[in-house]
């Protein structure tokens, strides 16, 4: 608050602040007009100056990776593997046989010094927006983008499995795609939303849900697989089973990616086996599998445990318990999904509950709108958390440096450090 109004009640201060707000708006408009005039006057010159300074800095930086004698020169640098052939072709076209391009073996550069470029199929590329919120993976490690592209929309659809909400999200995706351009943020978000909406509609059909139980009331929809209003425990079992599959996949990926370190790879693989044995033993306790499998599963666990300790040290037990806890944390999928469908059902019950159909419909629409907003943001946060914390924790190795190409700067490009 201004000094003169610091001790005044808010109801008295607000009327006295309005004239100052109007003055600020005029001052901001003047500043914006001055900035526009400055841009028109010297903007082009500043762009040329920045481009020239950028190129000079790159040339100075390149001296550190170049050497020359009276008869030869050597330049060392990074280039994405897919661009290597094009680089060699261009150099030979301009310089002939005077230049030789040699590729240094990739195994020599598995470390922090090698820059990273994510390369994914076009269908997976939009999901790089989600993995980009974390540091880049180290060179030679696993890019998590394909796993996010598969599991993120699927888990989202399992949580918000509703045909009506899926169609609403598909409409939003179509609007974003129409307004976006190229590989911009809007189009990438539209593609992610379209994938999520597809799974929402698929699971909505399996759950028999269209704006909650409205599909059952109006169109006679019936669950083809799971009635989430009543089948809470089966839904919980499904969520934990998904967590088990997700974590096992992460451990297997970790074991494969560490094949150059046999001891670590064996430890990851043995952890995956023990996790599967624990699930097998629990399935027999809950009579999901024959009880005769319980004893072999426990014996196998007792045999595997000292081997795991020998491979990974005394912290192996803590890591195993943490992994089991991560599997159980997938129960949030059931909690969020049940809350979503029950809020939709409550919204439908509002029709006629306020003494008039019109008022009830208005309240129902508002409640559905609120539930749809919650269904967009809450599952996004929790599903990303399941990936970033639980799933990525099994194999993800951050710390990769971003690839900065040796190229001219242009407005809108990323400046070289």
Write up what this structure looks like.
The mean pLDDT is 89. The strands form two sheets. This protein has a two-stranded antiparallel ribbon. The chain is flat. It has 417 residues and is mainly α. The protein has helices spanning 10-62, 84-95, 128-131, 145-159, 163-179, 185-207, 214-219, 232-257, 262-285, 294-312, 316-328, 331-349, 357-391, and strands spanning 66-68, 73-75, 115-116, 401-402. The chain starts with 9 loop residues before the first helix and ends in a 15-residue tail after the last strand.
Judged by helices, strands and strand pairing, the structural class is mainly alpha
How many domains make up the 3D coordinates?
2
Which descriptor suits the 3D outline? flat
Q: How is the main sheet built?
A: 2 strands, antiparallel
